Amino acid sequence: EPEVTQTPSHQVTQMGQEVILRCVPISNHLYFYWYRQILGQKVEFLVSFYNNEISEKSEIFDDQFSVERPDGSNFTLKIRSTKLEDSAMYFCASRVVGGADTQYFGPGTRLTVL
Amino acid sequence: AQSVSQHNHHVILSEAASLELGCNYSYGGTVNLFWYVQYPGQHLQLLLKYFSGDPLVKGIKGFEAEFIKSKFSFNLRKPSVQWSDTAEYFCAVNGKGSNYKLTFGKGTLLTVNP
Fold first, then answer.
1. Are residues B44 and A100, on separate chains, in Cβ contact within 8 Å?
2. Which of B32, B103, B106 faces A45 most closely, judged by CB atoms?
């Protein structure tokens, strides 16, 4: 069964450094999402991406964040200058275009900012 | 704004006990409802979903949920839990007006003792 994959599984970085989290969505999916989960809190929506542009973003997704689909398979989340409060589990998800379709989640990347 | 409330933070049951996890939502429009499960060390997996039609939906592993529109609820049930059901359970909603982004509840940790 096709799966969403994410790399790395765990990223440790120093405050102020740039990080890039990578996702490979399911191949025939066209709608992509990033969510995050701070330890002990709920999973929160960050951004959705369709047709090579952001379709919606949350208040969390400020100028420090960006997303890109550099080729036909990868979908990346970049944090330009990490802060301590960016430490969280970041999940990528994808779905087929149809609105009622299920979002399939990747295993997540645990980001630790020191 | 859409929101999801899960009433139980941690539920502890013995094997063969019946399970009901509460979920209430707030959403201004036609809503899609989901239950996701996260087993220890694994990614979010879809248990079941409701889009339309029969309000009683059946999912994987013997789980079911009932959509009660008048109560804005979508409670998850299982008649007899197993040790392998130990996991965190998340209720989520989305809809057309929200670009189909998922809004999650805080999750309920289920511990099943053998």
1. no
2. B103
Nearest-CA distance B101 → chain A (Å): 7
| Among candidates B34, B43, B106 on the partner chain, residue whose Cβ is nearest the Cβ of A42 | B106
Q: How far apart are CA B54 and CA B56, in angstroms?
A: 5
Q: pLDDT digits over B21-62, tens only? A: 999 999 877 889 999 999 988 888 999 999 889 999 999 999
Chain A, nearest residue to B44 by Cα: A105
Do A33 and A92 touch, CB atoms closer than 8 A? yes
- The single-letter code of the amino acid at A52 is N
What's the CA gap between A95 and A60, in Å, rounded?
A: 22
Report yes or no: A7 and A20 within 8 Å, Cβ to Cβ: no
Asked if B34 and B23 count as a contact pair (C-beta separation under 8 A), the reply is no
Give per-residue pLDDT as tens, A28-69: 898 999 999 998 888 999 999 998 999 999 999 999 999 999
For residue A25, is the peptide bond before it cis, meaning its omega torsion is within 30 degrees of 0? Answer: no
Could you give the percent of chain A with pLDDT greater than 70?
A: 97
Confidence label for A99 from pLDDT (cuts 50, 70 and 90): low
DSSP conformational letter for B55? S
Nearest CA in chain B to A109: B43
Within 8 A by CB and 6+ apart from B37, the residues are: B44, B45, B47, B87, B88, B89, B90
Q: How many helices (H) and strands (E) does chain B have?
A: 0, 12
Does residue B96 have a pLDDT over 80? no
